[in-house]
Structure formats: C-alpha cells, structure tokens
C-alpha cells in the first residue's frame, strides 16, 4: 500500500529543512520499493496572516487521512507565538492525543559538540506530550491591579502517565534495559509523587528493565557529566521539553535533534519534527542544519515499519557528517543546507 505523507513546512527555517528532507525520503522510498505519496499543507504563519488561523478547522481530520506527518517548525516575529505554537503544533498534539514525544540524542562521530566527552552518547527522551504543566489550565487573578497573579495549573493523570510509561519501558526493553524516570517529588507534592508511584507499578510488568528515579535538577547535571550512564529517560511535559534541548547539545545542538509525536498502539498518524523552532535569526540564508529534520524523517519511516529505508537515511547522514566540509555553520562549518543535504543524498546506499 502507498504511504500517504503530509508535509507541513511551516515558517522560518521549517521550509528550508523540509525541502532538504523530502528528496532524501523519496530516494529512500525508491530504493526500498515504497510508494511514497507526498501532500504539502500550507499551514503556519503566512496562512495565519492571510486567514486568521494557522490551520483549518478540520485540521485533525486532514491529518487522519494520512499515514504520517513531517512538520518543519512554526513561529514568526510578526505573529504572537501562542497563535502559532498553540494554533498549530500543540493544538494538533492535543486534538490527535499524541501521547508522547520521543526525542533521540545520538552523537555522530566527527561532529563537534563543545562539551566534554560525548563520544558514544546515544539516549532517548520520552516526553509526556499532552498534560502536565502544558495543559493550559489556570488564569490571571487581580489582573491590572498591580498585584496580578498568574496561576498555571499542572495536571497529571494516571491514564496519561501509564501510557507514556508503557512506551518508555518497551523502548528501554528493546535498547539497554535501563530507564530513568525524571520527576521532582521532593518539592512538588502531588503530581510527581503520583508519577513515581504509577511508573513503579508499570515497572512490575517489565522485570527486564531496571528503573531508577532521578530528580530533574540532578538529571540536568548528570546529562552534562555522565551522559553515557543514561539510556531511556521518561519525563513529564515541562521537564522533557527542557532536558531535550540540553541533551540536543550533547549531539551538536538544535540542528541535530529529531522527534516523533506518537500515540503508541493507537490508530493515529504520528507527527515527526525537528526539536528546534523556526530559527528566525538564521532563516532565509540557506544555512540551517537539515539533520534534525532528516533524522525525523528516518524516525517516521521506522515507525511505519520501513526500517531498511530509515537505516539507509541514518547511515547516509552519519557518513556525510564525518566530512567537516559538509558541516553547516552551527557545527562550525560553512556548508549550506543544500550542500549537506546533497552530501547525504550522495551517500544513500539504498
Ligand atoms: P529555535 O529552535 O528556533 O532557535 C534556537 C537557536 O537554535 C537559534 O540560535 C537558532 O539559530 C538555532 N537553530 C535552530 N534550528 C537550527 C538549525 N536547523 N540549524 C542551525 N541552527 C538552528 O528556538 P527559538 O529561537 O526559541 O524560537 C524561534 C521561534 O520558533 C519562536 O517563534 C518559537 O515559538 C518557535 N518554536 C517553534 C517550535 C515548533 O514549531 N515546534 C519549537 C520551538 C520554538
Ligand atoms: Mg522545546
């Protein structure tokens, strides 16, 4: 059956890295006999300025008519961030109930990282993607009185913790068998203690996986000091968001970090996107690093069961990165987005 891929380039560097990725996906598909049908959607900032909404009202149905989505990024300086971030990517994650955001961090040989000893780092952050601190609950009290109070309520429910935990344990079981739960139960008294309790219960069904519970502040230090002691990290929405930017640096920076928004076991297309945003500071110059988007494309193919195509992309990325003449400015080089993408295409062996 054909793979129906929806592509949302979005804003800023989004269209640049997506344009670099689609031909690589197409090559991987051709090389493995896959019929890849690509539909481009014009959702994002320009559409917001034109029509008052970043995506159509039936966006979730449009997505459901596809097998997967490749998303670039949204955000532009002349539109308030929440209109685009909530109006598109957070909105889709919630409407489609995409339970977890999976963020692998892999230090490729030859890529400078500006932090010590990242050789061999290979870990995955599983971030709960629908609740926690990002449910949008709360409000403003005494607004405009000079005594304004902003109240942001975090929501953590057993069902949502359980499904994220199951995914993390299964992933850890396929990898090294080590899972680190990241919470903050010494200072927060309700939500994170529930996480600890529920995840320990799920652990009983996964005796093959060794669970440790680590406080988020300690985890921040450990990610920098001994990242190779880590394999799969499970975190709530806020901590997962923050730690994954930190962890991305271990692999060379924001330009290197892919992600997958998925509902494990559910019949919903996943949304695959670089962790980074629209990078307005470098947009339009053709120098964005396309690797985060390329690796998101590899995750997409892998989750659809096309492992040979996914591995082909990763190996070509890895081979291209060994040669510093293909490095974009964020990696200390002077290659353009298209230079690096062309080097990856050249090295596709499937
Ligand atoms: P950002 O990730 O866009 O940029 C942070 C830094 O990383 C910048 O210095 C940028 O130049 C660099 N960077 C990002 N991607 C890169 C790439 N592919 N190659 C080389 N360097 C890269 O985060 P920032 O600046 O906080 O946000 C910019 C806009 O993006 C905002 O409007 C924000 O709301 C939006 N955003 C959207 C996201 C999404 O669509 N999922 C996620 C994060 C931010
Ligand atoms: Mg983030």
UniProtKB/TrEMBL annotation:
It comes from the Bacteria. Signal peptide: none annotated. The keyword Oxidoreductase applies. Its cofactor is Mg(2+); Mn(2+). Pfam families: Iso_dh. Keywords: Manganese, Metal-binding, NAD, Oxidoreductase. One of its GO terms (molecular function) is oxidoreductase activity, acting on the CH-OH group of donors, NAD or NADP as acceptor. Residues 4-344 form the Isopropylmalate dehydrogenase-like domain. InterPro entries: ICDH/IPMDH, IsoCit/isopropylmalate_DH_CS, IsoPropMal-DH-like_dom. SUPFAM superfamilies: Isocitrate/Isopropylmalate dehydrogenase-like (SSF53659). This is Tartrate dehydrogenase/decarboxylase/D-malate dehydrogenase. It comes from Terracoccus luteus.
């Amino acid at each position: 059956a054909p793979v129906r891929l929806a592509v949302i380039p979005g804003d800023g560097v989004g269209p640049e890295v997506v344009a670099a990725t689609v031909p690589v996906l197409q090559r991987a598909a051709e090389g493995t006999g896959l019929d890849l049908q690509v539909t481009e959607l014009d959702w994002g900032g320009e559409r917001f300025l034109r029509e008052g909404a970043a995506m159509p009202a039936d966006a979730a149905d449009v997505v459901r008519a596809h097998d997967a989505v490749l998303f670039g990024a949204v955000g532009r300086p002349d539109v308030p961030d929440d209109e685009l971030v909530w109006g598109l990517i957070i909105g889709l994650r919630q409407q489609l109930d995409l339970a977890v955001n999976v963020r692998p961090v892999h230090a490729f040989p030859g890529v400078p990282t500006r932090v010590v000893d990242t050789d061999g780092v290979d870990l995955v952050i599983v971030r709960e993607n629908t609740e926690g601190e990002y449910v949008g609950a709360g409000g403003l009290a005494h607004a405009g009185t000079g005594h304004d109070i902003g109240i942001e309520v975090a929501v953590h429910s057993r069902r949502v913790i359980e499904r994220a935990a199951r995914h993390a344990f299964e992933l850890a079981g396929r990898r090294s068998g080590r899972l680190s739960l990241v919470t903050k139960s010494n200072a927060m008294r309700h939500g994170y203690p529930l996480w600890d309790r529920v995840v320990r219960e799920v652990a009983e069904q996964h005796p093959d996986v060794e669970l440790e519970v680590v406080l988020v502040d300690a985890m921040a230090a450990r990610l920098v000091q001994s990242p190779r002691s880590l394999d799969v990290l499970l975190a709530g929405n806020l901590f997962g968001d923050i730690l994954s930017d930190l962890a991305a640096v271990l692999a060379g920076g924001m330009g290197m970090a892919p992600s997958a928004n998925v509902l494990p076991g559910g019949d919903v297309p996943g949304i695959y996107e670089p962790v980074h945003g629209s990078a307005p500071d470098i947009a339009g110059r053709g120098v964005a690093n396309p690797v985060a988007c390329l690796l998101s494309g590899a995750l997409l193919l892998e989750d659809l069961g096309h492992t040979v195509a996914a591995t082909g992309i990763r190996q070509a990325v890895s081979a291209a990165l060994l040669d510093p003449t293909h490095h974009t400015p964020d990696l200390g080089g002077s290659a353009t987005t298209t230079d690096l993408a062309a080097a990856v295409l050249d090295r596709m062996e499937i």
